[in-house]
C-alpha cells in the first residue's frame, strides 16, 4: 500500500475514420487513471488544428460530460493523466502542453523525469526564453523547437533533442499531421503500441489498449521513435537511439505502479507480482494459517506466497472504493486506530490465526504499522509481514516520488527495531537480486537504484545520495 | 456481478459528548455507500431542533466538504443512503424524511418495502392527507403520526403502527429527544447495534460500526424496537412484536448486497460466500486449471470453490475503480465486446486454461455472456460457469429490484439453452436448499422467495406471480 | 434603497401548441426575479403529468441551462420566484409545491401571507396531517384538498377554501387539466392576465407578460378566481368572493417592490413614483441645484421632484450591477465609508451643489446615513433628503418583511434627531394621506397599515402592534 | 447600446501592511467588470513569490468565495478583467500572465492592442521562443525579458521594450519586489494612480480607486512609467517616453467603455456624455415631447439633450439586470420583437408622444432597429434617433472590436436608407469634430480614427482600410 507517486500515463491515438476519438481518449484516460490523479487532459487534432482540454482533477471531474468532439474531422489525439505531489498542484503543469509556433503547433505529453532539466532550463532562459510551467516537459519542447528551427524537420529535431536529454522520458508528441511516440534509451518508463483497424494507439500500459479494443503490437524499444502520419496512417520507426546496453525499466512499475492486467516489456504485471510472492515464500518462509495481501497491489503477491508455501490464501481486508480525493480525513489521535473507514479487516479470516501479511513495500512504516494493528485488533495471533519490495535506501531521480533518506524507514532503523515498531512476529523483504528477476524474460534489464544505489545514468549535479 | 438493486443503508448515532457527530455520519455513509448510490442524507438533532441535509448523488458529491455541524450541541443524528431505480430518481424521495408537527418533529429513514403500501396510502388520502413523495416511508410516518395523536406517546405509536405495517422495514426514527430503531417482525433487512463510550450506534451493517470505531453489540431481533434517550443515553428495548416464527432474512444480503467484512445476524458475509463456493464445488464439480471470481462479490465464492476443489485460485479480472456514475457509456454494437474499460481480463491467468468462473448470480444473462466472451478472447480453453445464487424465478415484494419473470434468464430458457447462449462448457447454480444453509447458525431463517416462490408474508393485492 | 423583502413572483402559462413553455417560464422568471431572489422553480404539466424543478438560487443559478422540456406535450406550467429572509433559507420551502393525491396531483404557487396560518395548521395537525414545509402555502393546499375530497370538485374546493383563508394570497394552482389563478378578496398582492394567440398567461406583474410577448388583458379583481382549461384553452371567471369593499393593494408594491415598467391595477408603477416625487416637491420644497435619486427605485421619484420643482435632474450614483448574492462583504468599520463598491457617487454631479436626494424609504436609517456621507465626501454643499414613503411605524402581517417597531428609525427618533443622525440639511417624508393618491385611478384602494396602523383585516391572534 | 468590445481592465495595488490585498483585488475587479467579462485573474506577490489565480468567467464565477490570501505576507498584487470576442474564448489568454525565469518571475496585465504584434512574434519564434498564448501580451513579455537579460535591469528593460512596441498598451507589471505601471506614448487606454495611507493603487478607471477607498492622485501621462518599490512603498516616475505630441485617448472610452462615475484624463465621463447630448441638441434639434436614453450609456447623453433642448427627460426603458452571460436566447424569428426580456419600454412614458431617443452609437443597426420598434409598439407617435457617436467608417487597430467595413451600418447605407431601415422620423449623429470636444480640457487629444480614418500611428502591415 505504497503512497509513492510517479509521473503520469500517456495515451495517443490516430484513426483514419472509424474510431470515435473523443470516446477513445476518455477510455484511455480511465484505464490510466491509476498512474496520475492530480489532473488530466486531451489534445485534439481537428483537420490539423490543435486544441487542448485539461484541468486539475480526476477524469470524471475534468470531463463530467463527454468532450464535444467533431468526430468526423478529429482523427488524432493525445491524452495524459498526471500525478500529484503536495504543494505543487498547479493547473499550468497539467498536460498535454500545447505550443503555438509559426512552424506549426505542437502538443506534448511526458512521463518521466529528466536529470539535466535544471541545466537545460537555465541555458534556454539565458537565451531569452520564457517558461510558463515548472515542468521539465517545457524544456523538452524548447529543445525540439530549437532543432526544428535549425533543421526544418520535426523528426530530425526530436532525434537531436534526444542527444541532449538525460533521464527518463516516454513522450507523445502531436503536430498538425503527425503522432510521434518516443521512449528514452534507458527505457525507464513503459510505452507500447497497439493496432486499430484503421490506425494506431500508443499507451503507457497495455490495459489502455484493451480499453479501446486495440490489439497489442509490441512495446517500444528503449530509444525508439515511432511516427504515425495522419495522411495515410502509415507507421515508421527509427532506432537511431536504441543502443546495445540493457534496458532500465523502473522495477517499481511491476511492483506497484502498473495495473496487474497490463503487460510491460513482455512481462505480465500480475505474474511478476505472483513471482515476487513465490520468492518471498522461498526466502522468508514461516509457519502460518493464512496468507493475506494488502489491497490492491499486495493481493497478487499474496497469492504467489500461498501457492509456493501451501498456506491457504484468504481475504483479509475490504478497501472502501468510494473514498475519493475529497474524503474528509478523521482527526489524528488515539481514536484513529478504531476508525476503519478506508480499510477494514475481515475478522473471520484472521481471528485466532497466524497470518502472513504481504504488502507491496514499506516506505515510512506508518501505514504498515497501522495495518498490523488492525489485524491484531481483529484477533490475529501472529503477524508475519513480507514486503514485495526490498528496503528503500536511495533517492530516485527518474520521476518516482520516494522520500529523502532521512524519512525512509529502512534508513532509520535496523531489522529488530523495524520489527518492534511494526509489532510483527517476523519481517522479510524481497532481496534486491530477486527484484530484477521478477520478469521471466532474460532480456529485460531493470533500474533498481532506489534499493541498490546503482544508477543507470549520471545523477543530477549537486544531488547527494541523501 | 448482479445489477440488482436494493433499498438503502441506515446509520444512526447518539453520543453524550465525545463523538463528532458530523464526521461519524460521513464515515457511516461511506461505509454504507454500496447499499445505495442514488442519493443520501443526514438528519441532525441540535438541542432538540431537527434539520436535514440531503440530495441526489454519491456521498462525496452530496457532501463535498464536511457538513458544518455545531458539534457541541448536535449529539444525535440519522443518515441514509438510497438506491436508484431508473426513472424514479427524484430529490423528494431522498431520505431521511423530516416531518414537522406541533407534537414534535420527526425524521425517519427506511430500508425495505411495504407490501400494503398502496392500501394504506389510499386510506390516508381519503382522510385528507397530502403526500409529497412517492415513497412508502411517508405512509409509515403518517401511521405513526396518527397513533401519536391518539396516544400522545411516540413509543406506543410506533408499536401500534407496526400492527398495521406489512412487509419489509428496518427503520431509524429521530425525535427531538429520542433515537429509535425498528426491525420488522420478519427481519427481512438487517439492523445492528453498536456501543460507543458514551452512546450508541445503529447501522444496516456492522462495517459501519467499524467505520466509526463502535463496538458491535448485537443484531436487532426481528420485531424489536430499541430506544436511545438523548437525556441520559439510556437504551431500552421492546420485544412486543418479536414472535416465535423463524426469521426471514433476505438471502441476497449474504450473496450480493452486504459487504464481505460485515457480520449479519451472526453470519460473516465473507464466510457465507466462501460456503457458497464450497457448496458449488461439491454440487457442480469439474476438472479445471484455475478458479476465478467476477469482482467484487464473486471473489469470495471463488476462494471457497478453490479450497473445496483443490483447483488453484487466480485473479481473472481487474475492475476499474475509477468508473463512476457519470461514466460515458460506449455506444452499443459489435465493438462493445472489444472495449474492456470496466472489467479487463488478466490474460496470463486464463490463457490456455480450463477456467471455473464464479459469479454471484445470473439475472438476465447479458452480463454473464459478455464476461464469458472476454475470457474466450483472452484465451480460456474451457469456461465452467457457477452461480452462487439459484436461478431467479419469482418477483420480490420486499425491496429488491428483481426483473419481472418475462425478463428473467432462468424463466425464459432451459439449462441447455442457457449454456448455449452463455457459450459455457458447463453451468451450475447453487441449489435453493443450499442457499438457506449459507449461515452456519441454525437459528437464522431466510427469505428465498425469489428462488422458491414461497413468500413469508401475504403478497400485495393484485400481484400475480409473474 | 429599501432592504425590505416581500413574498414572491408568480407566472403561469397555458398554450394550445404554439408557445415554447420552457422558454416562456424562463423569461417569466427573469422578469420577476426582482420579487424574489432566494429560490425559484417551475412546475410542468406534460400530458396531465405534473413535475417540478426548483432549487435555492437565482434563476440563472437554478436553471444554468434551458430546462429540458418535451415542448410538444408540455402545454401548461406555473413558475415562482421566492424571496429570502435570513435564517429561513430552506430548499423545502421553494415553490411551486407539488402534492400527489389519488384524486389528482396539484402544484401550487403563492404570493402573500395568511393571517390565520397558525390556527389552520394546528387544526390540520390535530387531524393527523403531516407538514413538510414551514410555509403557509402548505396550509392552503390542505384546505383545498379537504374540500376537494368532500365535493369532488377543484373549483368548489378553492371557493370553500377561500371562505376560510384570511390575509394576503395571490395563487396559481395547476392540476392535470386546469390552470387556476386566485386573488384574495382584499387584493393585497397583484395578479394580472395576459392573452397569447392560443392561450393565456397569469403573472404578478405585467412586465412578465411583456417578457413572453403576451398582450395584457386586465388585472384580476380582488376575490376573483380564473380557470383556464387545457382541453380547449377556455377561460372562465368566478366573482363569488369579489365584494363591494374597496381593495387593499399593498402601497409598497408601487413605491418599491414592482418594476417601473409594470402596470398594476391600472396604475403605471413608473408614473406612481413620478407622482410621489411631485407630492414631495409640493409638500417639502427646498432651494437646491440638482435632484438625484438613489438607484434603482428612487430614480423615478427624483424625476418627478425635478419636474415639479424645476430643479435640474441629475445622476448622482452609479450602482454596480455585477455585485451578486455571493459578493464578499467588506469588513465593518471606519474604512467602510471609503469603500464605494456597490454605490459610487458621480462627483461632477454634486460637487459644490445643494442636492435634493430622493430615496424610496427610510427603514433603519443606516443605509440613508451612509449614502448621505458619500455625497458629503463627494463635495455636496447641502443634502436635502426626501423619502417617497411615509415613516414606517407599524408591522405588516401580509407578507412584507418590515422590522419590528423597536428597530424602525421613525419609531425611535423624532424629526430633529433623525436629521442629526442622517446629517441632512432637511428631511421630508411623503404623507400617509398622499401615499394612497399615488394612483390616478380613484377606484383603487390601498393597504397602508405599515404607516397608519389601520389594518384592512383582523390581525393574527397574539400580535401586538409592536 | 453598443455591442462593441474592448480590451480589459487593470488593477494593481501595493500596501505596506494595512490594506487587505485579497479583498482590494476583488473590489477592484468588480469595479472594472464592465471592461471585460470573458475572464479575470489576480496575481499575488507573497514575500516575493508570485502566484496567479484566474479563469474564464465573471468575477463572481471565478472567485465565488474570497480568494484565500496570506494577508500578512501578501502586500502587492495585480488584477485583470478580460473582454471576450467570439471564438477566441481560451483559458490560456486570461491574464495576468505569469512568467518564471531565473532572473526573477514576472506577472503582466495588459490593456490595448499592439500594431506590430505579428512582426515581433515572428522574430521571437525564429529565435526559438515558444508561445503559449495567442495574446500580444506574451510578445511584450518576451521583449522585456530580452532586454532584461541584456541589461540586468527591469526598469531599463521596459524602457527599451517601449522603443520597439507600437500601438496601444497600458500595462501593469509585477516582479518579486516592484509594481510597475506603463502607459503607451499615445495614451490610447487610460491608467490612473491612487494613494493609500501606506501604498499605491493603479487602475484603468478612477471608479476602481473609489472601490478600495484610495484617493485619486492623477492619470499617468502618455509614455509615463511608474514604479512602486515594495521595500519602502516609494514611487518613482520616468518620463523618458513622454513626448510633446498630443495624446490619443480613445474617444470611445468616453462614449461607451468607461463607467460614468470615472474621471479619465481629467474628464468626467458622465459630463462628457452630458456634453455629447448638448451637442446633439444643438446640431440636430427637433420638436418632441420627451427625451429618453437607451440604457446604460445613452442615459447621460439623454439628460444632456434634455437640458439643452428643454424637452423633458423621461425613463423609456427598463433593463433587466439579472440577465447574465448564460441567458438562454430566444429563438430568432418574428416573435422576437414581441419578447421584451432584456429591455422593456415604459409605455406610460412614450405613449402618444414624440420621442427623442439617444443611443451611444449605431454599429450594425440591428439593435437600434429593434429598439425603435419597441417604442412604436409601446405607442410612440414619432421617434427621433440621435447617436452620441459619429458614424463608424474605419477599422480600429488599438483594441476595439469594431466590425469590418462591410458590416458597418454607415458604410453600407446613405442617410435616407438608414432612416428607412431604422424606421425613424429623423436621425442625427454627433459630428467627428464634436467628438474631440467632449472634454472641457483643451490639452487632451483623442484618437477618433474609427470615425475619421486618421490614425495616430502607423497601421499594421497588410491592413487595408476595409
Automatic annotation (TrEMBL), chains A, B, C, D:
It comes from the Bacteria. Mg(2+) binds at residues 297, 359-360. SUPFAM superfamilies: N-terminal nucleophile aminohydrolases (Ntn hydrolases), PRTase-like. GO terms for molecular function: 4 iron, 4 sulfur cluster binding; amidophosphoribosyltransferase activity; magnesium ion binding. Binds 1 [4Fe-4S] cluster per subunit. Pathway: Purine metabolism; IMP biosynthesis via de novo pathway; N(1)-(5-phospho-D-ribosyl)glycinamide from 5-phospho-alpha-D-ribose 1-diphosphate: step 1/2. Its cofactor is [4Fe-4S] cluster; Mg(2+). [4Fe-4S] cluster binds at residues 250, 396, 447, 450. Residues 8-231 form the Glutamine amidotransferase type-2 domain. Keywords: 4Fe-4S, Glutamine amidotransferase, Glycosyltransferase, Iron, Iron-sulfur, Magnesium, Metal-binding, Purine biosynthesis, Transferase. It catalyses: 5-phospho-beta-D-ribosylamine + L-glutamate + diphosphate = 5-phospho-alpha-D-ribose 1-diphosphate + L-glutamine + H2O. The keyword Transferase applies. It is an enzyme of class 2 (transferase). Its EC number is 2.4.2.14. Coiled coil: none annotated. GO terms for biological process: 'de novo' IMP biosynthetic process; purine nucleobase biosynthetic process. Pfam families: GATase_7, Pribosyltran. In the C-terminal section; belongs to the purine/pyrimidine phosphoribosyltransferase family. Catalyzes the formation of phosphoribosylamine from phosphoribosylpyrophosphate (PRPP) and glutamine. This is Amidophosphoribosyltransferase. The gene is purF.
